Task: structure prediction
Amino acid sequence: MRILFVSSEVAPYSKTGGLADVSSALPATLKKRGHEILVVTPRYGQIDVATWDLRRRRLKLTISIKGKTIQGGILDGQSPEGVPIAFVDQPKYFERQGLYGENGQDYTDNDERFAFLCHAALETCIMSGFSPDVIHLNDWQTAPIAALVQHIYRDKPEINSAGTLLTIHNLGYQGLFPPEAIMSLGLDWQLFTPSTMEFFGKLSFLKAGLVFADKLTTVSPTYAQEIQTSDMGFGLDGILKDRAEDLRGILNGANYRDWDPTHDAFIASPFSMQDLSGKTVCKADLQQKMGLPMNHDAAIIGCISRLSDQKGIDLFLKKATELLDLDCQFVFLGEGQKDIEDSLDKLAFEHPHRLAFHRGYNEELAHVIQAGSDMLLVPSRYEPCGLTQIYALRYGTVPIVRAVGGLDDTIDDADDEFGTGFKFRDADSSQLLAAIKRALTRYSDRVGWRRLMESGMSMDFSWDLPARRYEAVYKEIRNLRK
Ligand code: ADP
Ligand code: GLC
Result:
């Protein structure tokens, strides 16, 4: 099949979270399975033309945004797996410090920036004679393409028979803008209604996709159910229930090219299920790098996370006094909300032997923490899938997770047969504390712990199975269009 895959972040070029990992690994697996795939993504300022050997096409994009003519270009690149990637080049929109904003503030012209990306993706198909069977959209940044295909591009021969799939990676981010943003997209005001793109007086980019895409998926089966409830539907549960027939949950995979301790270039020593001696080296390396006491017996509990309300770090903070009294060490890596950053900074200052915090985004340190920790904490309030707990399994780092969304789908409790981690049910700090205590008790049983590590390390979350599930949805979409 011919697939156009559009995403606002693709690892290793640009990344703020798991969307980047998925946008790298899924297209690569689809290509390996014989599909023709083109990925379209912005060329942000951080993506260096020479480093990635990008080639400029002798074509100009000319797109009208709010009545202004904006020109842009395409830079062609190739992922490490040989997937062709068209980088949309528009310096005024994309050559900035951040992907979506700076200093905790979204860019005020995000509607224009991502409207440009949406049009550019379709114009790229037209200019290069690429007629996709399916256009695969990801999150609010590219969701409006579903509306553009239906209302603007249908008469273009290259787009004419294309169907659309929107994958929801996170319903909490919807791309809400003032109503005038409809003019950034170049769509008619008639589409600004509650049954189309309006959301409580605002224009919702995400809703454009929820309404107009042929099929919808999200990144775990449990999250597919949760988003149809008023508790977790972010006000969109009604429309998701209406579209339940077209909505599927496909669990993400893990990209073991980047996340496997047998060949991870970032870690102090490789290790495997058969030979865990390297993990001891990685633990000492982590303690040294984070300035923690070099105590091998103390369990290290790591946490690698965007610091937003979603991730439930407040549950940890609420019980910090009790938690920091336990015989273990905590390592946090993350950035985001200033209140959470400041609280973690304060704890690290007050308890330097117990807790270390690295504020910021650091790819290398994320690997060092996965490899050197004994446990990984993911206490999310909601979690569409979650990737860090899946990576942790491969590193023999036992996840402690809240049983929600994809966390519930990927981790089995250690009290059950073939368990791989520790789960707590509610977003309740006492339950989090109890789960950590339970994990520490189990940790002191060396033989039982080793068995638990092995259960996790032997789990296979590679992308082949999810890719096959996407293929099935693509086929349904193609049949719809025939
Ligand atoms: P989300 O996409 O909601 O942030 P996921 O668990 O799906 O959550 O994906 C998070 C990805 O981002 C993982 O690859 C993780 O290692 C990475 N990550 C998160 N925060 C940081 C950070 N501060 N530094 C480096 N990598 C990070
Ligand atoms: C989102 C979700 C996360 C998911 C990732 C990739 O950022 O928050 O749970 O793993 O997308 O699908």
Remarks:
- The first helix runs from residue 18 to 32.
- The mean pLDDT is 97.
